[in-house]
Design a protein that fits this description.
It contains one helix and 13 strands, in the order H-E-E-E-E-E-E-E-E-E-E-E-E-E. With 206 residues, the chain is mainly beta. The chain has one domain (19-39, 48-204). The structure holds 2-acetamido-2-deoxy-beta-D-glucopyranose (3 copies). One 2-acetamido-2-deoxy-beta-D-glucopyranose binds next to strand 7 and strand 12. The site of one 2-acetamido-2-deoxy-beta-D-glucopyranose has 4 residues, from loops. Residues 48-193 form the Ubiquitin 3 binding protein But2 C-terminal domain. Keywords: Signal. Residues 1-16 form the signal peptide.
Length: 206
């Protein structure tokens, strides 16, 4: 096998692995919705807003943060858990986990603070095992069947596809994941009133 062919084969296999970062979509003009002027796009009726957001802290492992509206991250300490309810009726769709990160100037009611190198880590919990008011670092949802997703470098002005997979995995229940960082302070208000910011699950049908 020629080196180029072998490389293509390896890359092909790697890009099909569960949890692989599928694409980093820079916010090019094609991504600007002509009606809203927003980067990235959530088709109305075809996405889920996180049903529950909470934090956990490694340095305060028994602290329960309860329901939160913000995603909050500090290096190697505070991480955020985002949980989605996937209706049983979506079993036939593909689910895309996306992170929308507009620039501050594209936001009117939401805002964020961000400093650091922007390395983020995403890990999925077991479908059906989701956070609640008792969730702490020491009392997290059950680990999922998949290895951690590769680290993602996230910075303002981009939208990121974290993963694409069949929705049946979580249809009829909840699916939650942990997002953490080793080098960044980041706090944002999860919102889509203007330009979407934060993490969403989108549905697609070929
Ligand atoms: C994160 O915030 C803490 C506390 O304010 C600060 O000490 C640290 O330098 C910050 N780190 C980065 C990468 O911004
Ligand atoms: C954070 O994690 C990334 C990816 O594993 C690594 O390359 C980087 O050196 C880490 N940064 C720090 C400050 O530990
Ligand atoms: C989901 O994605 C896979 C891989 O791209 C594709 O083969 C399949 O047709 C998609 N299913 C739907 C419902 O779009």
């Amino acid at each position: 096998m020629k080196v180029a062919t072998l490389l293509a084969a390896i890359v092909g296999v790697a890009s099909a692995a569960p949890g692989q970062l599928v694409s980093k979509r820079a916010l090019t003009p094609q991504d600007i919705n002509p009606r809203t002027g927003c980067p990235g796009y959530l088709t109305p009726g075809e996405f889920e807003f996180p049903h529950y957001i909470t934090q956990i802290s490694k340095s305060q492992p028994d602290k329960a943060f309860g329901p939160q509206y913000f995603g909050v991250f500090t290096p190697n300490d505070v991480s955020s858990i985002f949980s989605f309810d996937i209706p049983a009726s979506r079993a036939g769709a593909n689910c895309t986990l996306e992170f929308f990160f507009p620039t501050q100037s594209q936001l009117k009611t939401s805002s964020y603070t961000y400093s650091g190198a922007g390395s983020f880590f995403f890990t999925g919990y077991n479908p059906g095992s989701c956070p609640n008011a008792e969730t702490t670092y020491n009392n997290q949802p059950k680990p999922g069947p998949f290895p951690p997703f590769p680290p993602v470098h996230m910075e303002p002005g981009n939208a990121y596809t974290i993963d694409i997979g069949p929705c049946w995995v979580g249809a009829g229940t909840c699916v939650a994941g942990l997002t953490s960082t080793n080098d960044t302070n980041f706090s944002f208000f999860q919102d889509y009133d203007e330009c979407p910011i934060g993490i969403y699950t989108g549905y697609s049908y070929l």
